[in-house]
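## retry 2 of 3
previous attempt timed out at serialization; input unchanged, resubmitting
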Amino acid sequence: MPKSFNNGVGITDFTVPMKMYENYHDKTPKTLFDGTQLPANQTGLSDFYEVINRLFNHPNVGPFIARRLIQNFVKSNPSPAYVNRVATVFNNNGNNERGDLKAVIKAILLDPEARICAPVDNDVKAGKLIQPIERFTHLFKAFDISSPSGKLFFKDYSVYQDKLGQSFLESPSVFNFFSPFYAENNFVEANDMVSPEFEILTTTSSIHYINLMENAIKYRPFNNQTSLNENTYGLTNNREDDPNLDFSDEIEVLQTLGVEALIERLNILLCRGSLSTSTKATITNTINEYFDRVGTYTNERAVQDAVYFIMISEYPILK
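## retry succeeded, writing output
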C-alpha cells in the first residue's frame, strides 16, 4: 500500500507487501491505459511505480472513490453534486495534497447531504440498507456487551453466513458480498438507482434476521466460544461464560421517565434520531398495552421488546 505521496504528483516512498521477482518481469516496452509509454528494460518496481502513479493521478479516481465510499458510509444513491464535493477534496485537501483519505472521510460525513436526517419516504434516494453483520455489531456495542470472563469469541461464520449471507472476512470475492451496481428490478432499477446491500436480502434471510435478532436481545447474544475442547484442542461453547447486553440505563429511563422517553433514547442510540413518528407511536402503544394486559410484564422485558421492535422495523435503513 502507498506509504506517502509527493503532493499528489508521485510516489516518493512505497511499502511493497509482495516481493518482485525480476526474472519473471516482462522487460519489453509497454503502453499504459492513458497512452503513456514505458521504455524497455526497466525493473519491475519501476514499471509498478509508474502504473500506480498514473492510476492515482487519473481524473476518474477521485469521483470513483468518492462514490464508493459514500455508498458504504452514507447512502446508496448520492447526488452528482455530493460526489463532486467529495472528489474535489480527494483531488486537493486544501493543502495541495491529493488522496488524503482522512479529509475525504470528513468531507463525506460532514456534507449537508449526509447530515440531513429526513425520513426516507421524503426522499427516495436517501439512506441505504445496513449490512447484517453491522446490525449485530451495532447492537453489541450500543449495549456494552460483556461476559463473566471478560473474553468474547463469536464463531460468526456458522451463525450468520448461511442464514444472512454475510460474516466477518467471508466475502465470496475481493469485491465484497454484493455488487455496488446491484439494483432491485421492480422499483430501484426502474428509477435508475442501485440497492447494493439488497443483493443478499432474501425472504429466507429476512426471517432468519428477525429470529437471530430476537434471540440476541432476549436470550443470548451468541454462544461464547471460550472453552477449550481437550479432545480437539479447539475452542467450544462455554455456557458458564454467556455474553450479556447491559440494558440498565434503558431500564432506569423507563422507570423514571416512561415509555415515550425510552423510545426517544433508543431512537437516538440506534436510529440516529430518524425513527418515524408513526413507528415510535406504534411501539409506544404496544409496550403500554403489554403493561396493561400482562401482569407479569417487567421493565426489563419492556426494554428488550422495544429494542427488538426497533431493530426489525425501520432500523436497517440508514438515513
